């Protein structure tokens, strides 16, 4: 047996990718305390807190308009499955938090979708969950966006509502410019 055959199976780790944007980030440097260089491990039983109080929050935002503790992300295992997820809770008494258009007041919480946009004030955070198997810890990987994070660019699109012809060939491809298709009775063919 080779050493790779004898080695234990490597366990994959759930990673939460967070891409941050604020319109004044270049001049105000509110993200200067965040580590954008590498993945960071977080124990599964720790809540990842975001806010301006560096003694309480693991992820510190240097901005007086951000609450001491703005929100938290808690890693958990879904009941009766081996799947993992994150729960987001708004901990700010003054600022509402939105997750993909769902507004959360103080102490409201919801499951974090696998890909979503978190907003509060002028802050936009794109959150993307990369699934893994580890139950002891998860990782965070922080990124910085240079442009605003838009709903259209980041969220999954709904299926097109355009009808699909039975033969899968769109008649619009063969029509002269400005002409629209007309319906004919199949007996007229």
Automatic annotation (TrEMBL):
Signal peptide: none
Record keyword Ubl conjugation present: no
GO aspect biological process, one term: innate immune response
Main localization of the protein described in the UniProt heading: cytoplasm
InterPro entries: FHA_dom, SMAD_FHA_dom_sf, TIFA
Keyword line: Cytoplasm, Immunity, Innate immunity
Keyword Cytoplasm: yes
Chain ranges of the FHA domain: 49-121
Any single GO CC term annotated in Swiss-Prot or TrEMBL for this entry: cytoplasm
Pfam families tied to this protein: FHA
Entry's localization field: Cytoplasm
Homology family: Belongs to the TIFA family.
Alphabetized PANTHER family for the sequence: TRAF-INTERACTING PROTEIN WITH FHA DOMAIN-CONTAINING PROTEIN A, TRAF-INTERACTING PROTEIN WITH FHA DOMAIN-CONTAINING PROTEIN A FAMILY MEMBER
Protein name in UniProt: TRAF-interacting protein with FHA domain-containing protein A
Highest classification ranks of the organism: Eukaryota, Metazoa, Chordata, Craniata, Vertebrata
Gene: Tifa
